[in-house]
From TrEMBL:
<dbReference type="InterPro" id="IPR000847">
    <property type="entry name" value="LysR_HTH_N"/>
</dbReference>
<protein>
    <submittedName>
        <fullName>LysR family transcriptional regulator</fullName>
    </submittedName>
</protein>
<keyword id="KW-0804">Transcription</keyword>
<keyword id="KW-0805">Transcription regulation</keyword>
<dbReference type="GO" id="GO:0000976">
    <property type="term" value="F:transcription cis-regulatory region binding"/>
</dbReference>
<dbReference type="GO" id="GO:0003700">
    <property type="term" value="F:DNA-binding transcription factor activity"/>
</dbReference>
<feature type="domain" description="HTH lysR-type">
    <location>
        <begin position="1"/>
        <end position="58"/>
    </location>
</feature>
<comment type="similarity">
    <text>Belongs to the LysR transcriptional regulatory family.</text>
</comment>
<dbReference type="Pfam" id="PF03466">
    <property type="entry name" value="LysR_substrate"/>
</dbReference>
<dbReference type="InterPro" id="IPR036390">
    <property type="entry name" value="WH_DNA-bd_sf"/>
</dbReference>
<dbReference type="InterPro" id="IPR037404">
    <property type="entry name" value="IlvY_PBP2"/>
</dbReference>
<dbReference type="Pfam" id="PF00126">
    <property type="entry name" value="HTH_1"/>
</dbReference>
<keyword id="KW-0238">DNA-binding</keyword>
<dbReference type="InterPro" id="IPR036388">
    <property type="entry name" value="WH-like_DNA-bd_sf"/>
</dbReference>
<dbReference type="InterPro" id="IPR005119">
    <property type="entry name" value="LysR_subst-bd"/>
</dbReference>
Length: 295
């Protein structure tokens, strides 16, 4: 068993798709399939169940996944320790964030980081920000950018970047009679407004709490993954949404929606970096973490 085979296993375990995993590993699908078979022969069990349509982890595969993530993490550490004694760091770290965060914060951070640590390769993944903390806890990423929830696991470290207000947004032009362009004045009026909200996460928890305090039973028109999708649906006139203002500020659709002045205001987004406490022992993770201190 070698570290490359384990990395191939991780790519397939995280994508559950031979095509995407082979692209990530820069090898052919047939070579990836052959490597996975060889790995299964070495461990003596099937790690994946596959047919013509799907790929899933077996129970043994799920157990091996934990080992594989730890093995790759330890490999990165020992490779650095055995490298030459120069001050230059070499290796890779993975970062996960939303599309908005990638150009709102990450561009400047990576630009500075590359100048100081050109030997460190960044693997960037983007997606739903509500999945960011789970990806850290699952060992899929080294660092994520996310909003600070009400409670955080003890094994997580957090470093703030900025605070962004959560705002109500509505279409500039009225497309449907049920979607107002001005904020409702009563709880009864609010309860009839079709709302477009995040499926879960910090913003959903904040708006749910806001509605409870105002004694409002909202009408949920749609629950979506990703704040950018909320802005899009609101701009089309399907309902009223709630997003961090930083998402709206960077949206190409911001001229097609308006921000409502609603009182009391929603609790703001406290956005920052997350990593596991133990990951800060990794010199490359610590180097990126320290970059925020110098800003």
């Amino acid at each position: 068993m070698n570290i490359k085979s384990i990395k191939h296993f991780l790519a397939l375990a995280e994508t559950l798709h031979f095509g995407r995993a082979s692209e990530e590993c820069n090898i052919s699908i047939s070579a990836l399939s052959r490597n996975i078979r060889q790995l299964e022969d070495e461990v003596g069990v099937e790690l994946f169940t596959r047919d013509n349509r799907t790929v899933t982890l077996t129970q043994e595969g799920k157990k091996f996944l934990t080992y594989a993530r730890d093995a790759v993490s330890q490999w990165r550490l020992i490779r650095h320790e055995l490298a030459d004694s120069s001050d230059q760091l070499h290796g890779e770290i993975s970062i996960y964030c939303s599309v908005t965060a990638s150009y709102s914060f990450l561009f400047e951070l990576l630009n500075q980081f590359r100048q100081v640590h050109p030997g460190i390769e960044i693997k960037l993944h983007t997606g739903d920000p509500d999945e960011a903390i789970a990806r850290i806890l699952d060992g899929k990423e080294d660092i994520t950018i996310a909003a600070h929830p009400t409670s955080v696991a003890r094994n997580l470290a957090f470093k703030p970047i900025t605070i962004s207000p959560l705002v109500f947004i509505a279409p500039v032009e009225q497309h449907l009679p049920s979607v107002p362009t001005q904020p409702p004045e009563t709880a009864d009026q609010w309860s009839k407004v079709p709302m477009i909200l995040s499926e879960a996460g910090v913003s959903r928890n904040s708006i749910d709490q806001w509605f409870r305090k105002q004694d409002i039973s909202p009408t949920i028109y749609a629950q979506v993954a990703g704040n950018e999708a909320i802005v899009s649906m609101v701009s089309l006139g399907f309902g009223v949404g709630v997003v961090p203002s930083i998402v709206l500020d960077n949206s190409p659709l911001k001229e097609r929606v308006q921000v409502w002045d609603v009182q009391p205001e929603l609790a703001p987004y406290d956005i920052g970096l997350f990593t596991l406490n133990k990951s800060l022992k990794n010199p490359m993770v610590e180097a990126f973490w320290s970059l925020m201190t110098s800003k």
